[in-house]
């Protein structure tokens, strides 16, 4: 595979990773909003969980614990995705440098091919 093809594939992968990161961030923000709403509950409030088409009563403690676990999981996924993004960005950068060197070498080779031969002495 040529560096240009590898660069193209890596750029596409990087785009997908950024998209995944954005979706995770949206989920993270939504769950933090739920957590914030939970903090406003009084012991008399009832919490329901959607199970299929039905709402089932659930304890506040269990609901809060589930949201906290979900936030923790999403944060770990965000961290993992960010490290993948950084690694892909570094590889993209090194491929850009390799492609630039390759193009410079091609230009130099073309210039040498077009240069007149040195005079004979």
What would you say this structure looks like, in words?
This is Prefoldin subunit 6. Pfam families: Prefoldin_2 (PF01920). InterPro entries: PFD_beta-like, Prefoldin. The protein is rod-shaped. It contains 2 helices and 2 strands. It has 121 residues and is mainly α. Helix 1 (3-39) packs antiparallel against helix 2 (60-114). A hairpin with a 2-residue loop joins strand 1 and strand 2 (54-58). The chain has one domain (3-106): Orthogonal Bundle (Helix Hairpins).
Helix content: over 70%
Tell the overall outline. rod-shaped
> How much of the polypeptide forms β-strand, as a percent range?
5-15%
Number of separate strands: 2
Strand neighbour order, sheet with most strands = 1-2
Number of helices in the DSSP assignment: 2
Compute the number of structural domains.
1
Distance between the termini: 46 Å
Helical/strand content category = mainly alpha
Main pleated sheet: 2 strands, antiparallel
Radius of gyration: 28 Å
Highlighted features:
unfolded protein binding; coiled coil; mainly alpha; Prefoldin; PFD_beta-like; Helix Hairpins; 121 residues; Prefoldin subunit 6
Question: In short, what is this structure?
Answer:
Belongs to the prefoldin subunit beta family. This protein is mainly α and 121 residues long.
Topology of this structure?
Elements: H1 3-39, E1 47-51, E2 54-58, H2 60-114
Antiparallel strand pairs: 1-2
Pfam family, one: Prefoldin_2
Coiled coil: 7-37, 64-105
GO molecular function, one term: protein-folding chaperone binding
């Amino acid at each position: 595979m040529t560096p240009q093809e590898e660069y193209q594939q890596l750029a596409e992968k990087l785009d997908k990773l950024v998209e995944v990161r954005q979706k995770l961030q949206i989920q993270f923000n939504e769950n933090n909003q739920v957590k914030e709403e939970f903090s406003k509950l009084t012991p008399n409030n009832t919490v329901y969980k959607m199970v299929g088409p039905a709402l089932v009563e659930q304890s506040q403690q269990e609901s809060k614990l589930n949201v906290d676990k979900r936030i923790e999981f999403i944060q770990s996924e965000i961290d993992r995705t960010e490290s993948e993004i950084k690694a892909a960005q570094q590889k993209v950068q090194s491929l850009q440098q390799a492609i630039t060197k390759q193009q410079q070498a091609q230009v130099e080779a073309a210039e040498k091919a077009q240069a007149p031969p040195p005079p004979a002495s």
